[in-house]
Structure formats: structure tokens, C-alpha cells
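Chain A, query sequence.
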Amino acid sequence: MTHPAVQEAMSGCARLAEAAGAVGSPNPIDAIRQIDYDPAAVDSYAVQLRDVIKDVQKAIEEHEKAIAEHESGTGGSASDSANEAMRKELDELSVELKGLQALVEEVERIAKLMDEVVRATATEVLDVCRRADPAAVVVLEGDWLPGDPGEDVVHEAVAEIIKLCRQCQDEVAMRRSELDKAMAAVEGDGGAASGGVAGTGSGGAAGSGEPGAAGAAGPAGGGSQGEPQNGSGD
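Chain A, predicted structure.
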């Protein structure tokens, strides 16, 4: 599912897109469609991570209970060895829990940043469309000739939208890379993503294609599609 702000921007560019076709300019809606961020997918990923956290917390509680029962009912060197092994597992689970909790916070932080940049870009795109709308109307009514100012306005508006969308996608890609690094750090710590309580995850963050973390499938996004070419230059 596409971000609601992106859908709104595509709808708002309908007349400009039609005028762009009439003057031979790229379709601005194709550029807007390249913005690859689905907030619902990221939210779903965060929910999955929280579910894994609950599993780890439950495992910690069970280990603590088992250790308490073991210490109160046994003795000797064999008992000491078993107790040491259980405490080691408990420590590993505690480290895993901290890593997962930090990852959830990072997912939420990055998701907020991506949401802000997508919404801001959509607002700018709609502003460009509004400013170019009178020229688009003239073009669609047929009251123009090649080289008229209205044609230039349409070309320039499309070029500006393409530039805005490329900048937005670059920012989203950078934030996605940050999230991938955070996921990789959890995996490197031997957390659930590395075969701990929740098993191995699959799927990357926000369409990155990287392995998922903590047994949760990463949020899906759009693939890398070909960018529309700007015939009039950036």
C-alpha cells in the first residue's frame, strides 16, 4: 500500500500529467510513484518485533524460575555446572532483549523521519501542481502553440516534481540503510534473528531486500523501478 500522501499527490497531478502528455513532457505521476515508503508495512514490522520481545521476556521469566528452583533443590559440582549454564543462557537472553528493544525504538524513529519527508515532498508536489494549473488548463483547451509560455510552465513544473521525488527517494533510501544497519547489529549480537527464541527472520526493511531481524519479516516496500526521464532537464 502506498503512503496516503503519495496517493494524494498523484491524484492532485492528474491535470498536469495530462497536459504534460500533450506537450511531450514526462508524466509527473510516474515520478511520484517512485517514492518507496509504505508506513503500514513498517508499522506491521514494529508489531512483529514487539511480539518477539514478548517471547523473549517469557523465556527470561522461565529461565529465572528454573534457576530459582534448581538452586533451592540441588547441590554439588554437577548442580553448579548446570546452574552456570542456565545463567549463561539467561544473560544471552537479556542481551537479546535489550537489542530488540533498541531496534524497535530505532524502527519507530526512522519511520517517523521517513513519514515526515514523504509528507513534506507530497505537499511541495501539490504546490507545484497548483502553480502550474492555469498553464495546464490552457494546454488542455488547445489554446496554445509550441513555444508558448504555457508549454514552458508545464515542462518546468514536471521537471521540478521529478527533482523533488528523486530527492525524497534518496532520503528514504538513506533512512532505510540506517534501519538495515540497526537490524544487522541485532543479528550480530546473536539475537533472535540469528536463531534465538524467535527463529530466523526473512525480508528486509522497507523494501531493502536485506534479511529481517528478530524472527520478524521486514516491512515490504516497492522495488527499484526505473525512474522517468526528464526531457527538459533538472
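The two ends are 29 Å apart (CA to CA). Helices lie at 4-12, 14-23, 28-33, 39-73, 77-141, 149-188.
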